[in-house]
Amino acid sequence: MNRPLHNVLVVEDETAIADTVLYALRSEGYGAQHCLLGGGALEALRQQAFDVVVLDVGLPDMSGFEVCRSLRTFSEVPVIFLTARNDEFDRVLGLELGADDYMAKPFSPRELVARVRARLRRSGTSVEQGGWQQHGRFAIDREGRRIRFAEQPLELTRYEYALMAALLQRPGAILSRAQLMDRGWDTDADSADRTVDTHVKTLRAKLRAAGADPDPIRTHRGLGYALEV
């Protein structure tokens, strides 16, 4: 039997739901493991590399939000939340904590697999000679602090580079202004939201000059920004 190319961790305390999700994932050729508790999931994620985490919000030992907050201290693995609630507050909180997608119960296992596939496609990278990582039309050399778009080098300021590097770390994911500042700003730098917006504006101008059409930086009102690669 061929080894699966991608491994998914399902963190869900309702066995019937977990079994359905595991079956759907494995039927599509993904490796899938299951954890009942948030603490066990964090331990598994520290010991083994996973490509996507499907995370229930309502776990017995700790909330999925707490799991995601802890996870983001050591991993950028894509997270898809599952929840019985579907109000805007929970969606915003989940995204601000670093989640990549959100599905309300009841949900279609087929749709969940499609969303897992989309996350894997967006987060896929290839390493080129010289330390470059390719993300669709973008390439980044993190050690050399360089970014290209459609093979054209982008002349970026320090903070423009920091913003682009953060967005390229998780393509397609919505990052709040606070998350972008945490990843790119010094603690003593100006941290006003409008500062992020100003740098995004100058980045968009440089991307347009490089031939980016439509604009790859997407604004999600009230949430933040995402980069389509």
Largest sheet: 5 strands, parallel
Give the DSSP E fraction (strand runs of 2 or more residues).
Answer: 15-25%
Number of helices: 8
Main-sheet strand order equals 2-1-3-4-5
- Calculate the terminal CA-CA distance, rounded to whole Å: 33 Å
**Rounded radius of gyration (Å):** 18 Å
Instruction: State mean pLDDT (0 to 100 scale).
Output: 84
Q: Which class best fits the helix and strand makeup?
A: alpha/beta
List low-pLDDT spans.
Answer: none
Shape: globular
Number of strands: 12
SSE order, as H and E? EHEHEHEHEHEEEEEHHHEE
Measured as a percent range, the helix fraction is: 40-55%
Describe the structure.
The chain has helices at residues 15-27, 38-47, 64-71, 88-96, 109-123, 158-169, 177-184, 193-209; strands at residues 7-11, 31-35, 52-56, 79-83, 101-104, 126-127, 133-135, 138-141, 146-149, 152-153, 217-220, 224-227. The protein has 229 residues and is of the alpha/beta class. The strands form three sheets. Strands 2-1-3-4-5 form a five-stranded parallel sheet, with helices on both faces. Strands 6-7-8-9-10 form a five-stranded antiparallel sheet, covered by helices on one side. It has a two-stranded antiparallel sheet with strand order 11-12. α2 runs parallel beside α3, α6 packs across α7 (177-184) and α6 (158-169) crosses α8 (193-209). The longest helix is centred in the last third of the chain and has 17 residues, at 193-209. The two termini are 33 Å apart. The mean pLDDT is 84.
Topology (elements, then pairings):
Blueprint: E1 7-11, H1 15-27, E2 31-35, H2 38-47, E3 52-56, H3 64-71, E4 79-83, H4 88-96, E5 101-104, H5 109-123, E6 126-127, E7 133-135, E8 138-141, E9 146-149, E10 152-153, H6 158-169, H7 177-184, H8 193-209, E11 217-220, E12 224-227
Parallel strand pairs: 1-2, 1-3, 3-4, 4-5
Antiparallel strand pairs: 6-7, 7-8, 8-9, 9-10, 11-12
Helix pairs in contact: 1-5, 2-3, 6-7, 6-8
